[in-house]
Write a structure and sequence with these properties.
Layout (H helix, E strand, L loop, with lengths): L2 E12 L5 H6 L1 E11 L2 H6 L8 H14 L5 H15 L5 E8 L11 E8 L1 E9 L4 H13 L4 E6 L3 E3 L10 E10 L3 H14 L14 E7 L4 E2 L4 E2 L8 H10 L12 H13 L1
Antiparallel strand pairs: 1-2, 2-3, 3-4, 5-8, 5-9, 6-8, 7-8, 10-11
Length: 276
């Protein structure tokens, strides 16, 4: 668990609300923030450059609340959280609470508030192509991911040539893995990657068939989920050498949250099974 810097009830004035009067006249809002960061180096060195400057954070919150007009405090909280995470590189996660003391509901209350928690997530993406200029498709996809404001490419594995998986006759694949840090939630990340595939001309007509570009979410932090559109960890990753070999290059000791084995151990196991 990261250390915390806490800001409580920063008072700002903003023109946020559903009603026109709120947007024209404005009203008071109270913003609280919990900043998750490693303070050890700052605590040892006594130097501000190794911590998150809470004075600058307060100024950024004030700027965001005064610069924009939102109908919902839910939106205000999202914008504040995202801007803080993008602005301050040492932030791992933030918790933002936006309080609205003068909420126009016609009943007595202290305030209405929205509290959210947002942060950076480490995800591992499998990449592959076996149609056209395979290298170009993969490199362009990595560039598109890197261009995202809320996503950073951290590691890129070597690309390996592999035989097709699944029994469909087709050309050999180029496969690799990348590690990213992202603010996108799993479903958002999936939609984003599928959009990149679609732009590359990906057709989902034959299961395990040829494709211009394949982008699979392999792992997302230590999350375990099984939804209709998305399963994490990828349910086939521990069986596939074309996933495990490049993934072991960039994250050999990454632990599979269900199998409780590292990527390197899973790779060694598949190698042993293939020798039989």
């Amino acid at each position: 668990m990261a250390d915390q810097i806490r800001i409580k009830d920063l008072e700002v004035y903003g023109n946020h609300g559903v009603y026109k009067e709120e947007q024209v006249l404005g009203q008071k809002f109270l913003i609280s923030a919990i900043l998750y960061t490693d303070t050890k180096r700052a605590g040892v060195s006594d130097q501000l450059k190794y911590s998150v400057d809470y004075g600058q954070v307060c100024k950024k919150i004030k700027e965001m609340m005064e610069k924009h007009t939102f109908q919902l405090i839910e939106r205000a909280a999202e914008v504040v959280a995202k801007n803080l995470l993008l602005e301050f590189s040492l932030l791992e996660k933030v918790e933002i609470e936006v309080k609205k003391p003068w909420a126009p509901i016609g009943l007595p209350l202290d305030y209405v508030s929205v509290k959210i928690q947002r942060g950076w997530h480490r995800a591992y993406i499998g990449v592959g192509s076996n149609m056209g200029d395979r290298m170009e498709y993969i490199n362009h996809a990595i560039d598109q991911i890197e261009e995202q404001e809320d996503t950073k490419v951290v590691h890129v594995s070597s690309l390996i040539e592999t035989k097709p998986y699944g029994g469909v006759e087709q050309d050999d694949f180029l496969n690799g893995c990348i590690a990213i840090d992202t603010l996108k939630e799993p479903e958002e990340l999936l939609d984003f990657l599928m959009d990149i595939e679609q732009q590359a001309g990906r057709k989902r007509t034959i299961h395990w068939g040829p494709r211009t570009l394949d982008l699979d979410i392999l792992m997302y932090d230590d999350l375990v989920m099984n939804e209709r559109k998305l399963t994490i960890p990828h349910k086939e990753m521990h069986k596939r050498m074309f996933v495990l070999e490049p993934l072991a290059e960039i994250a050999p000791y990454l632990m599979h949250p269900l199998l409780k084995e590292t990527v390197l151990q899973l790779k060694d196991k598949v190698e042993e099974e293939n020798k039989k």
